[in-house]
Amino acid sequence: MVAFRGPKVWLWRWRRNPLRRRADRLESWVVLIAWTLTLFGGVAAGLMAAHSVESGLARQRAEWRPVDAVLTQDAPEPASRSGTATENVWAKVRWTASDGSEHEGRARVDPAALMGARVTVWTDAEGLLVTEPASESQARLRAALVGGLAGLFVAAVPFVGGRLVRGRMERRRMDQWDEEWARIGPLWERKIW
């Protein structure tokens, strides 16, 4: 059975009405609080996450440096995959850190590189191997994606919570109507004529 609700009236929950129950007023506050937290919480969380990611990636661009390294072994042959472009392979390299200390590690290199070839690797402030830092445009894209996802997930919590509370209130209201109908319904069924 579908009930006719009539035309949509804005802010009907806050209008004065002698038939408005306490539960209606409570539901109006639940809706207001849930939507406020959904909107502002999601936006705030998204902006904070985006700023955090972007500043972290900017710090990496400032601290990480490219260093010349030397292959200490021939690069292995890539695993053959028909129809795909040749990918870089892992090989042992040796480099000198900014403090003069020698380091060894594994880095991605061209599969045709031979022992003694010079390759560029990226190191952090301690001289350890890291990946190439994200460019500014890549950092903006990553920050926007992370910020958007964080905002959505944070906004989902009050939204879903508000829906659950409203659903519970609706079930309670229907139960109360059932109880009242159980009392009043039999009185209407009597035939007077």
From TrEMBL:
<keyword id="KW-0472">Membrane</keyword>
<feature type="transmembrane region" description="Helical">
    <location>
        <begin position="143"/>
        <end position="165"/>
    </location>
</feature>
<dbReference type="InterPro" id="IPR039708">
    <property type="entry name" value="MT1774/Rv1733c-like"/>
</dbReference>
<feature type="transmembrane region" description="Helical">
    <location>
        <begin position="29"/>
        <end position="50"/>
    </location>
</feature>
<keyword id="KW-1133">Transmembrane helix</keyword>
<protein>
    <submittedName>
        <fullName>Uncharacterized protein</fullName>
    </submittedName>
</protein>
<keyword id="KW-0812">Transmembrane</keyword>
